[in-house]
Design brief:
single chain, 249 residues
């Protein structure tokens, strides 16, 4: 049984607390819960639940950055759920979290701070969270200045450098065919000025750190399998493109 199935069944032992716990509790209040179920959530269950709840909570605040959540943004969230191949159960819970979080009195600073306290020792989880927020922000091909303000708040709370942030962002910016290679460098956290050795070293580190098995062992929910798989494919494709351009083995 998944962490969500256990929670909806009235599992005990989930003590996330704080603003994320309040959002989760409100979202769960809209589903039928069996209070007689004494199933315990494992540490892995709690880690995956925390990531899932934090992501959709922060996504809601980013979507509302300009003061209102539009139908286009709601469709964008639904499309993300579809593209991620979430089950109906997970997708419905994600939507409930989004709805509760966007109207919550808690701020994105509070959501991000709580998540950081949970994942501060796992930089890959922090980077993956920031990258997913950027991915959804760019999904409508328009990164609103107020959306970026929200994302930058998260970036600062996560202690992600300006340099790393710009590289992540550059990988989503629409680009011409001539600038495509520069975008591939950004995917590898490198630039055109990086040496062959630096590129190879960065590639190996990214493959190791962002392999699905690695991310899941650190707390990425199984529901985000598609993100992890796509990320790995993106890293490999970027490396192959740069290898071909540079001519190194």
């Amino acid at each position: 049984m998944s962490w969500l199935g256990k929670m909806m069944g009235g599992a005990i032992g989930f003590a996330i607390g704080g603003p994320l716990g309040a959002v989760a509790g409100a979202a769960l209040g809209h589903v039928c819960i069996d209070k007689n179920n004494n199933t315990l959530l494992t540490n892995t269950d709690e880690n995956e639940a925390t990531y899932f709840i934090a992501f959709f909570s922060m996504m809601a605040k980013v979507a509302k950055a300009d003061g209102v959540v539009t139908q286009e943004e709601i469709k964008g969230v639904e499309q993300f759920i579809t593209d991620s191949n979430l089950s109906k159960e997970s997708g419905d819970f994600a939507k409930r979290i989004f709805i509760e979080a966007k109207d919550s009195s808690s701020t994105i600073e509070e959501f991000a701070t709580q998540f950081y306290s949970f994942a501060r020792e796992e930089p890959e989880l922090l980077h993956s969270m920031l990258e997913m927020l950027l991915r959804i922000s760019f999904s409508d091909s328009h990164f609103h200045p107020n959306e970026e303000k929200m994302v930058l708040i998260v970036k600062d709370i996560f202690n992600i450098s300006d340099y790393d942030y710009e590289l992540i962002k550059k990988s989503f910016v629409p680009t011409s065919a001539d600038a495509l290679l520069e975008k591939q460098y950004a995917v590898l956290n490198c630039t055109v000025d990086s040496t062959d050795g630096e590129i190879k070293q960065s590639y190996k580190k990214l493959i190791r750190n962002f392999h699905p098995d690695t991310l899941f062992s650190k707390g990425l929910p199984q529901e985000f399998m598609q993100f992890a798989t796509n990320k790995l494919q993106e890293i490999n494709a970027a490396y192959e493109a740069i290898k071909k351009a540079r001519g190194f083995p």
